Structure to design on (769 residues):
């Protein structure tokens, strides 16, 4: 297999919410040497007890094809959907970003926060916590801009993804 | 879409549902699943199940000497019967000792249901005595596994375990049962009450791909069948259909290690084993073919050699029941995801109804090329009057057992490759070997399992003196159950394949590959209470083999062979199928690339 053209893909996996199911998914990635750039998981149907795992991964098209096929082999997996190869979906990530400082830098941080439509969810005389939602690239950009302004802490959720239009997964 | 929109698992407690203890449920479920034999070893955390087994009728328990032996025995049983093998072991070391066998079964797609005891639920996570995270440890070496914390889930899980192990691509499963769950009473449900929430293996082929496949085949000028263990796993019907298709087309056929026996080795269309130690004609045909029909094989590195140089000019048809095998190692042109029997049936049906004809002229030219490769006689060796050549020993074993009801198991190494090259299998399910994992110590316990399933058959483990010592303790099992297995040890006093690679790749520095301080196998046999035989000279070999065959008891046969014989032909690491080496003389002039040295 060629090692060129590495692509980034967002894959959703609907699983039975049984004990150890996340370990099965994660173990598949580590055991076969696939990358995980981000991973989110939560129960999405409390009655049917299904959870949705959203994985952002990277690899050649061949590797991505294998990842999907290997995921489908897991007994507890209901469905696998690749948001990158299908009609483009909506991807969102949330981050909490803590910035400390005073004077000019503090004002500048607040101004950039407004431009990015970040909410301030906690404040002291020397710190802000911003809540920001958007595509991962937007959050990357925001974090980069905050770095010289007193960035001390970042917590990101990883990507959640859904289709545009009436289609479900 | 969902794999299946419907339904929840299990069945709630019904009127008149049977109430049993967890341990009784296990036995009841085994009976309902038609299990006749289980291989196991007791211990603290499975005592309630052993207690229920004590009173049970219709299930024979085989007490092994080590849990690895239990799993390999169950593999041999499964491989030779087509039924799932069942294992019962205790928690902690019982489960960890089973891990090698589980991994072996996963790699070779062998259906096993392995039941492990676990410490009581309130002790899980406390580092209790003989506690291990069995589902954690076995997650990567099972098709699926369960920790059953509620006795009312136990019957459902037991039935699901059998379903998952035996359907789709078969494989091993583990059911981990805490001791308190074995004691508790709960409701038993029968297998027919179970419908799995998510598991729906695909077995029906898409007809459009079948049509594409036979079109390619009909237009082929240099076609080749390349078949594997998937044909065996699909059942004897698949072998029959394969034979029909191969006869109908007149195409040549080769097979992987796991697929031997699906097509008769005595047939003129048979090219022999493919891959690293495959025949010259099979490998050259793989390299030069224009249409490759891969049926139930997975383009393993032992088959493909250097993937960049693998069969560069062929269109590839790939039938596999596991969609993840398609395009994994090699890009294919026509994928067919289906059970082999069903797909072969459709291929035959369309071939006949569409009145397909092969390109007879092209095929004749192709066969004449193949015949030229055959004329190299790549399996030939220089025999000796004074020392037993291992190839000669296998040839004699084959000739003297021909026509009998024979099952062959092997260990791993040179002897395994010689057996695969030279022993001619005419039927499926007659050849049990550790292909994917390459587990030394597989063959002896596997023979025990095969003999349990086929009491009247002649079961022979073609072994090496190094491998066989890894699970030698199972001779005691064979003696206990009067299993007349024949352990035919090609004793060359070396880990022969390691020695061969050290000669080839490491300048003849034989680092720790000499089998020093070997036991006297004849005395060892006597110590176990079975028969020990030794042959050191070619002219005594036949008589000794006959003595072995005619003995009604288990036999350890110490066949002293040439310690320096190498296994040829061989595709050196990193080379292509048309760059085989045929003998020691040629090997000396063969440079293995640095890249090749990296490969195992």
């Amino acid at each position: 297999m060629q090692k060129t053209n590495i692509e980034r893909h967002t894959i959703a996996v609907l699983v039975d919410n049984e004990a150890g199911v996340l370990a099965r998914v994660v173990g598949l990635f580590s055991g076969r040497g696939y990358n995980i750039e981000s991973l989110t998981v939560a129960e999405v149907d409390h009655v049917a007890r299904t959870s949705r795992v959203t994985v952002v991964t990277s690899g050649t098209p061949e590797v991505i094809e294998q990842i999907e096929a290997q995921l489908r082999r897991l007994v507890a997996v209901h469905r696998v959907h690749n948001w990158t190869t299908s009609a483009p979906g909506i991807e969102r990530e949330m981050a909490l970003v803590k910035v400390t400082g005073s004077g000019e830098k503090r004002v500048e941080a607040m101004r950039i926060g407004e431009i990015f439509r970040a909410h301030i969810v906690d404040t002291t005389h020397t710190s802000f916590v911003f809540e920001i939602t958007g595509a991962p690239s937007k959050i990357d950009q925001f974090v980069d801009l905050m770095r010289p302004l007193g960035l001390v802490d970042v917590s990101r959720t990883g990507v959640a993804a859904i289709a545009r239009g009436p289609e479900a997964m | 879409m969902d794999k299946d929109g419907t339904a929840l698992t299990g069945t709630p407690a019904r009127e008149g549902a049977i109430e049993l203890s967890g341990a009784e449920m296990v036995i009841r479920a085994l009976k309902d699943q038609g299990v006749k034999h289980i291989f196991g070893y007791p211990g603290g955390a499975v005592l309630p199940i052993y207690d229920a087994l004590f009173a049970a009728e219709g299930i024979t328990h085989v007490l092994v000497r080590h849990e690895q032996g239990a799993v390999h025995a169950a593999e041999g049983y499964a491989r030779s019967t087509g039924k799932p093998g069942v294992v019962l072991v205790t928690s902690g070391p019982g489960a960890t000792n089973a891990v090698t066998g589980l991994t072996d079964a996963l790699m070779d797609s062998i259906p096993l249901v392995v039941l492990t005891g676990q410490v009581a639920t309130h002790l899980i996570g406390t580092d209790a005595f003989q506690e291990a995270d069995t589902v954690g440890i076995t997650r990567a070496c099972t098709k699926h596994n369960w920790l059953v914390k509620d006795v009312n889930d136990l019957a459902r899980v037991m039935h699901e375990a059998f379903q998952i192990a035996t359907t789709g691509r078969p494989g091993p499963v583990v059911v981990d049962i805490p001791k308190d769950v074995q004691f508790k009473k709960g409701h038993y449900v029968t297998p027919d009450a179970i419908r799995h929430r998510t598991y729906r293996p695909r077995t029906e082929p898409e007809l459009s791909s079948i049509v594409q496949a036979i079109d390619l085949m009909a237009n082929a000028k240099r076609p080749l069948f390349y078949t594997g263990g998937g044909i065996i796993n699909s059942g004897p019907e698949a072998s029959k259909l394969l034979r029909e298709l191969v006869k109908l087309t007149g195409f040549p056929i080769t097979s992987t290690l796991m697929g031997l026996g699906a097509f008769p080795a005595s047939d003129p269309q048979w090219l022999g084993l493919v891959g690293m130690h495959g025949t010259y004609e099979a490998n050259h045909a793989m390299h030069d073919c224009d249409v490759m029909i891969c049926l139930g094989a997975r383009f393993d590195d032992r088959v493909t050699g250097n993937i960049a140089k693998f069969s560069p000019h062929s269109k590839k048809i790939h039938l596999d029941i596991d969609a993840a095998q398609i395009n994994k190692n090699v890009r294919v042109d026509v994928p067919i995801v289906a059970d082999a029997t069903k797909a072969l049936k459709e291929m035959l049906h369309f071939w006949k109804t569409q009145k397909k004809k092969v390109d007879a002229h092209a095929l004749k030219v192709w066969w004449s090329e193949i015949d030229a490769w055959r004329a190299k006689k790549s399996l030939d060796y220089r025999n000796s009057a004074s020392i037993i050549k291992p190839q000669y020993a296998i040839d004699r074993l084959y000739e003297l057992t021909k026509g009998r009801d024979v099952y062959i198991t092997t260990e791993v190494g040179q002897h395994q490759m010689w057996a695969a090259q030279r022993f001619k299998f005419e039927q499926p399910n007659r050849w049990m070997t550790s292909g994917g994992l390459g587990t030394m110590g597989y063959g002896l316990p596997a023979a025990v399992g095969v003999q349990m399933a086929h009491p009247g058959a002649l079961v022979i483990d073609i072994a090496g003196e190094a491998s066989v010592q890894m699970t030698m303790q199972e001779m005691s099992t064979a003696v206990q159950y009067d299993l007349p297995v024949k352990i035919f040890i090609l004793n060359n006093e070396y880990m022969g394949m390691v020695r061969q690679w050290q000669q080839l790749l490491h300048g003849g520095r034989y680092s720790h590959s000499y089998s020093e301080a070997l036991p006297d196998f004849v005395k060892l046999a006597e110590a176990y209470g079975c028969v020990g035989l030794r042959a050191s000279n070619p002219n005594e070999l036949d008589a000794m083999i006959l003595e072995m065959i005619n003995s009604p008891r288990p036999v350890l046969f110490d066949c002293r062979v040439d310690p320096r014989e190498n296994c040829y032909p061989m595709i050196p690491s990193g080379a292509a199928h048309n760059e085989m080496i045929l003998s020691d003389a040629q090997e000396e002039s063969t440079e293995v690339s640095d890249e090749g040295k990296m490969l195992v």
Notes: Residues 1-13 of chain B have pLDDT under 50 and may be disordered.
